[in-house]
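Section 5: illustrative case.
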């Protein structure tokens, strides 16, 4: 292992690299110049491209193929770091419904969300209603301990599920008792992890919740459309599971740039062995001791790949791979945003399939 002073300089620059290097796509319309879409008398604004993909599928199911929703963040934006324009805040304030992830994911949107809600805007926060995990729960056993502690009937760990999962009864189990009517919880309250969408079962549940909420506002067939989109996600998950199960159990080890893959690891029987930035946000800063320890984990566990986020720079990860002193790949995943037209990640289902293929390929090569 190289001298630890290498990591001192690395720690000084990593926050800038990870928090400041958000990617953009030249084909993406500037969201500040878009207007709220009127869909059959209903205006919907969504915070992230990933949630936007699911919401748009639900709305199109009800209103037709030409229907769209307004998405605040552009392709490639880091949800932790994105700052809305005044025009985007006005869009949200004027909408019939604003759908956001919540649990502090959209850190730059928090003041705007608080402001528009105080003025009476309807904001649906999804993550708090889906049995959110505390940070640090990255193995199946720790998930079971958490479930036992909280008397959860529904296991989002790694046990096999049948086609009847995500029932209405399950929904009731997923919703946090301390969340309000719309699941509002603007902070990383209690250290809860907002990255639920990397568990496709939870995203299927989210589709049902969104459909129910849209039905409450506009009537029609939105609830049925939410159910239909949920079924599509569940069907796609079976293919994703087959891809991920191709990796031998002993090789299902993930090292990532920040703590975002806990839901993924628990759902699909993987383990997160280490992260560059702990705590779930990309805006933190690791120290040299943590980075040196992470290199030791990579060497000791013979980890063949480090997984980064396409919305962030990978300079720190490249240095870590080099410090490990062996042939370690740096593989980009779509974590906080969909990809552009040629990315094979232009929808939520496509994104999850592409991520599964990249993970399985990197861990079995």
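Designed sequence:
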């Amino acid at each position: 292992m190289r001298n630890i002073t290498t990591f001192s300089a690395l720690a000084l620059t990593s926050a800038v690299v990870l928090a400041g290097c958000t990617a953009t796509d030249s084909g993406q319309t500037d969201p500040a110049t878009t207007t709220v879409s009127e869909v059959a008398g209903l205006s919907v604004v969504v915070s992230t491209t990933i949630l936007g993909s699911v919401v748009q599928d639900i709305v199109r199911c009800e209103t037709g193929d030409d229907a769209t929703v307004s998405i605040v963040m552009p392709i490639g934006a880091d949800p932790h770091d994105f700052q809305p324009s005044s025009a985007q805040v006005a869009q949200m304030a004027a909408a019939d419904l604003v759908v956001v992830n919540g649990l502090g994911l959209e850190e730059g949107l928090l003041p705007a969300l608080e402001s528009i809600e105080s003025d009476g805007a309807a904001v649906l926060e999804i993550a708090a209603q889906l049995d959110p995990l505390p940070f640090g729960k990255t193995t199946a056993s720790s998930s079971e301990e958490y479930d036992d502690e909280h008397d959860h009937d529904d296991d989002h760990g790694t046990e096999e599920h049948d086609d009847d999962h995500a029932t209405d009864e399950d929904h009731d189990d997923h919703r946090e008792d301390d969340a309000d009517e719309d699941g509002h919880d603007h902070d990383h309250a209690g250290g809860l992890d907002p990255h639920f969408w990397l568990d496709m079962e939870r995203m299927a549940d989210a589709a049902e919740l969104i459909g129910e909420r849209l039905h409450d506002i506009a009537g029609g067939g939105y609830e049925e459309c939410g159910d239909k989109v949920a079924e599509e996600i569940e069907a796609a998950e079976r293919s994703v599971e087959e891809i991920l199960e191709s990796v031998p159990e002993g090789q299902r080890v993930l090292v990532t740039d920040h703590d975002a893959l806990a839901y993924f690891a628990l759902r699909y029987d993987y383990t997160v062995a280490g992260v560059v930035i702990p705590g779930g946000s990309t805006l933190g800063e690791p120290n040299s001791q943590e980075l040196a320890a992470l290199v030791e984990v990579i060497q000791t566990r013979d980890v063949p790949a480090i997984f980064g986020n396409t919305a962030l720079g990978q300079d720190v990860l490249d240095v870590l791979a080099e410090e490990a002193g062996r042939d370690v790949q740096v593989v980009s995943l779509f974590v906080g945003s969909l990809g552009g037209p040629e990315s094979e990640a232009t929808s939520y289902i496509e994104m999850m399939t592409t991520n599964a293929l990249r993970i399985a390929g990197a861990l079995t090569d």
